[in-house]
Amino acid sequence: MTGPAALWVRLLLVAVITVLVQISAVSQVTLLGVTADLSPLVVASVGLLCGSVVGAVMGFAVGLFVDTALLQTLGVSSLVLLCVGYWAGRLRELRDPAHGLTPVAVGAAATAVAALGFSLVQFLLGVDAPVSLLLLRDILVTIAVNAVLAMPVYALVRRALVRALPEDPRRRRRRAYVTGGLSPISRA
Amino acid sequence: MYKQSVRRRRAVLALLVAASLVLLTAYFGESAGGPFHALQRGVLEVTAPIQEGASRALKPIRDLFGWFDDTLDARGERERLRKERNELRRQVIGARAAERENSQLRRLVNLDRSDTVEGYEPVTARVIGRSPIVWYATITVDKGSSAGVRKDQPVVSGDGLVGKVTAVTGGASQVTLITDSTSGVSARVLTPVVSDSANGITGVVQPAVGRPRDLLLEFVPRRASIRKGDTVVTAGSQSTRLESLFPANLPIGVVTKADDEELSQYQRVHIRPFADLRRLDFVQILTRGTRRGAASLRAQEGSP
């Protein structure tokens, strides 16, 4: 299978595996008192690799699956994660960041946006219990833990999607130098 | 071409945002038996075996990370536990005498013991999933309605109260922990010194979002004398019409601090839960099979 259909099938698989791994494994491992959240990392990685529309759709799908599998309020995670995916995709479309550490920064920012987005939605929906300031510390530690995981997660998502992607900017640049056609050295 | 692409992108975004908001509104509007809730239970039913397999396979990794965390906390924990042990020794001596006396008095007045934990049938369940979001304190366990689990049944661990069942499928259930923002448990304070004024203090245990190791006992009158180290247990049934979901005397936690706020008629009591809710591998669901059986048996014995 090739073309857009192959990409959507791979994205669906990535979404399902992400949610299953998250709820059955990652959520049960505590690091520095918090658990890592793979969902914003995967959605941001897809946005970075595939653009804003695919990123937003992926965010919506992953959020819907998370809310459904965990019996949470439907629509909350979808709303937050589609914003994450769209933003990461727009970043790629407008800036096309080529720095090697871009996934780390984007992963941290995506986690921050997701955590703050959840907090905002929860406040809008009305929280009965008092909210501790330690929540802020938890959010910051989660961002740090996710930033550490961002690079391997990006690499895995890229590996899963790379064959189905219409064009990969980095691969395109690398090929340009190897073939010699556009290299400044070859023109000299 | 560019304008068309921009229009398409914005249309997709608007459509997805609208879909999320529609879902959110519809979910809030429907009852627990509605189609969205049914869909969620269906998905849980399908994913539960996968979650269970992954949970079992990844236990060594969880334990490894747990060991690192435990080692970091061990020193402070040891000192605290030593103090707690000494305090508990003193309490146990008083409690044994009180228990003996209580037992004799119960026999004298022929009290019904059906509201104690002994009347329940515990079902041991493995934790197979957990919510990653700090706002939702829920776990998924591998026992459902086929094992006798029903909605609203209390869930305990070896240390104390954990939460209650909030959704059930055939082979799995969702447990909302006592640290979830929607949780509230009627509770009673037990003090080592037996006196009417101290042991009658009741309140509602609520969580503080973002503090999994700190619960709040709310609606405690300011004049009530509560001390650090006092034990908090479930209040249990106080009325025949509005029965509590939790049986009486399930341990919840220990008092760590009491805030006597000047402007409030209530004081806010901080409690450290006995159960480590961040690291649960197994829990027990207190099903009511035996209890119902015992009740019907009593009714049969009573009938001519």
Task: Characterize this entry briefly.
By secondary structure, chain A is an all-alpha fold.
Relevant terms:
heterodimer; A: 188 residues; mainly alpha; 8 helices; 0% strand; B: 304 residues; six-stranded antiparallel barrel; six-stranded antiparallel β-barrel; 5 helices; 25% strand
Task: Describe the fold and architecture.
The complex is a heterodimer of chains A (188) and B (304). With 188 residues, chain A is mainly α. In chain A, 74% of the residues lie in helices and 0% in strands. Chain A has eight helices and no strands. In chain A, 47% of the residues are buried. Chain B is of the alpha+beta class and 304 residues long. In chain B, β4 and β5 (173-177) form a beta hairpin. Chain B is built from five helices and twelve strands. In chain B, strands 1-2-5-4-3-12 form a six-stranded antiparallel beta barrel. Mean pLDDT of chain B is 79; it is low at 290-304. In chain B, 39% of the residues lie in helices and 25% in strands. The longest helix of chain B has 51 residues, at 59-109. Classes of the chains: A mainly alpha (188), B alpha+beta (304). Chains A and B meet through α1, α3, α4, α5 and α6 of A and α1, α2, α3 and β1 of B.
